[in-house]
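Question (not urgent): is this output format expected?
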Amino acid sequence: MRPVRPVLLALLLLAGCRPPAQGDIYLAPRVPFRLCAPEAEPDFFANQEVDFLLPGGRREMLLAAVENKGGVLSLVVSTPLGQTLFTVRLQGGAATVDARVPLPGRLDPRLLPALVQFSLWPAEVLRAGLAPGLRLEQDGARRTLLRKDQVVWTVLREGQGPAYSAITLENPGMGITLRIRALEE
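Got this back:
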């Protein structure tokens, strides 16, 4: 088995994330977030192509199947050729990970469901999971997470929810942009 690609590590190690566990995860350095219950969002399924734009002009791509159904949020992350890298399942406040390739010990794959929630869940639900000093602003299709008036993440959604046709997430402090495009069923 091949180790996880550098882009995946860059995304998932944004803040030196700790190994999967209960409790808060970090969307960026000093930006804790509590995962929301999957029941907070309607059921949906989406196949997505995730294009990563990284510092230095590097680009990487992954595929993701995202499903929220019956109180369970599931993600299957694979290479463009279809090799499954890992799955993450969020249910009852606990996240479980099934890694098909070796994952670094400091990797917290719960960051992916957190970014899914940050992109899709209602703003009022997300605000309940934010630590003091963080602020979530919503302006139509644009969502911005701020820490001490500094932008941490922005999300721009296109199309109709809950499975939008395209979503762009940007972390300006780390120079990372994710462009997510829904694939045809």
